[in-house]
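Appendix C reproduces, verbatim, an entry submitted by the partner laboratory led by Prof. M.T., so that reviewers can inspect both the input and the predicted structure.
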Amino acid sequence: MSTIPDDKLDRVVDRWEAIQRELNAGPNQATYAKLTREFSELDPVVAAIRNLRAARQELRELEAMRRDSSAGREMMALAEDEIEALEPKLAEIEAELQILLLPKDAADEKSAILEVRAGTGGDEAALFAADLFRMYTRYADLKGWRTEIISLSENDLGGYREIVASIAGAGVFARLKFESGVHRVQRIPATEASGRIHTSAATVAVLPEAEDVDIDIRAEDIRIDTMRASGAGGQHVNKTDSAVRITHIPTGIIVVSAEKSQHQNRKLAMQVLRSRLFELERERADAERSQSRKSQVGSGDRSQRIRTYNFPQGRVTDHRINLTLHKLDQVMEGTALDELIDALVTDHQASLLADMDSHATA
């Protein structure tokens, strides 16, 4: 009747109760914050476990009534009807619980660093990169998240050669991590006089925002330079004369922040550097866990073409899950982006469930 062992459910409930005891004991601030996060993650799981166990108990009682001839035919028939109604409900509760019990990405609840860069296509690619960034900022506004630009390089037409921003809020990375990759656009560029459809591209990278406790950066491993931001040919490159460039010597990673005061730029550049180093560690750990693991949705491969935005036909196609929405305007406004993300999340969960089933039967 059940594919979720009771002992597994017991371990979850036991951990939830242990956290409650630890919180009541008054731990220090750092431990309290860590336990509170874990408790909030387990709380909906425990609620689902209780629903499942209540439904299982009800089913056992109904089955006993159905077998009890002394209860009379009418009661036995009533029990039969109620069992038929309860069994699909029980299966639904268990399916929801299986998803809640899937391995969690430890970075899912974090804020994120969003990087959008123009790819092939010249000025049109830069204009598309700006459109993508506006799509994400509108989506962030709908979610109640806060967006802050860290660095920006524009062209004369208002397009973005590159833009880096932080998006702060609960669960930002969980929603946006599936956006990493190459986004392709098919449309008539504003720069095209003959009206021909062009294909251009922009790359998106979404990194979990790392905290000091996630990544320790030694002072001797970084070089910090201040510089005046200016661009040739009258092109607006940055909005300040106090840009900060940080070089991480062991990895060669270079981060520039040029949107705020020099002090703020240093803080923002360190924020981006921590996130990039944190992502390197995550990728290394993931590779070590499984050298032969197949590429999955959300892997963050920036060279993978993930989505096409076809303006003449008003459609968006996500190539990873073969999903096409004829809602291009709503997607670009951020209002329909959840439809794509929800489908990607569901597909990712299905692949995790399939992996768990294959390991269980191996």
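The two ends are 21 Å apart (CA to CA). Additional entries are available on request from the coordinating office.
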